[in-house]
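2024-03-11 09:14:02 DEBUG pipeline.ingest accepted 1 chain
2024-03-11 09:14:02 DEBUG pipeline.ingest length=276
2024-03-11 09:14:03 DEBUG pipeline.predict start
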Amino acid sequence: MQYHTNSATFDLPAPLKDKSMHMFVMRDDGPSEFSVVITHADVLPEESLADFGDRLRQELGRALPRFQLRGLKECQVGASPAIELAYSWRKDGNFMHQRQAIVLVEGPAPGTRQAMMIAATCLNAFTEEWNAAFDGLLASMTLRNPLSVAAAAPKRKVVAATQPYTFALSARRRSLHVYANQAEACRKTDPREVELETWAFFDAAGNRLQPHFTAPNSYDPGLRNTGMYQLAAHPDPDATSLLDNLHLAAIYDPPMDVPGLPHLDAVRNFLEQQAA
């Protein structure tokens, strides 16, 4: 197979795989305050962009000490769908900070795909200057071998829940609650706040649930009756999962009647096991 780089073109022997890396640093000696590294990784045949992001996040959590996901969002790289992870980890007594954008591109062989990963690293928390620098780099990027939109962003697989647990995430309080079942979640969550869409609900596999009101809230000053609602599967199979939103939870209310979920890391591990 003929192989192309910025500096040369050559015939690549068939057994060899491309593990090339581009590294951009600010200084020749010692770590840079800000650096960017571009690498590629293989994508499994049926793996979507979201699936690859989930797998990468799990691998980072196992490999990096004190790994903490600080943000997860959809974005674009070279007009192609992409996702970005923001996270930190502990190294040599300090916390490193990284933003990593991931986009799927065509692989070196016909019909194959690769994940192209653009990672910016800071020795300290990202400043406005370094955030702007990385945002500008991503905005300026043009892909030489992009995938079609449909191939780059296939439907996310919906995992069937194996437990009756129901998770409730309050956007206003940034708190996550776990209930033994959907009925308990409905009883213990204020219907007025649910109507204002300040709560998001998920089943035990992390799939999004949608509330349906069976009795409306009353705002008559003389009555002030609260409504009643039930939860059902969300109609959009691509609705963001609890794993995608778990970084929004700053407060966790450990459940008394749901054993094995004493903290947020346990919740994350439980959801990852459900997905696996």
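2024-03-11 09:14:41 DEBUG pipeline.report The chain has two domains: 2-152, 166-275.
2024-03-11 09:14:41 DEBUG pipeline.predict end
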